[in-house]
Amino acid sequence: MRAKMRLLGFNAEAVKPLNEEAAADLGAELLGEATIFLLACGCIVLEYWRQRAQQRRREQQQRDAWGEMRDEVERLGLALEALQAQVQAAPQQSALDELRAEIQDLRAHIRRQDKPKEPRA
């Protein structure tokens, strides 16, 4: 009874003694309520830990997904740069091929003109 009175905030010195049966009932009730309170607190703490762990897993999965997307974007950026370099090099290569063909035509034309003309009979 003194413990109950202290928990309720009353002066516990002015409590008259209880008989044995009433004291056992109050002690059992106090013990039962304390057990239920502790179990409820334990469940709340366990649920909090479970939620935090689940949230950490979700955040880690999001970070992993962002990392994979960032890597994919970087890989695609490098592929794009390589393709742009190929596209820019392709017209230059074809222009070089055209110039080489023109040079060969000019050489052939010059050779034809440089051949000595055979005298007519």
Automatic annotation (TrEMBL):
Pfam families reported in the protein's UniProt record: OPA3
InterPro entries to which the protein is assigned, alphabetical: OPA3-like
UniProt keyword annotations, A-Z: Coiled coil
Family listed: Belongs to the OPA3 family.
Function: May play some role in mitochondrial processes.
Name of this chain's protein: Optic atrophy 3 protein
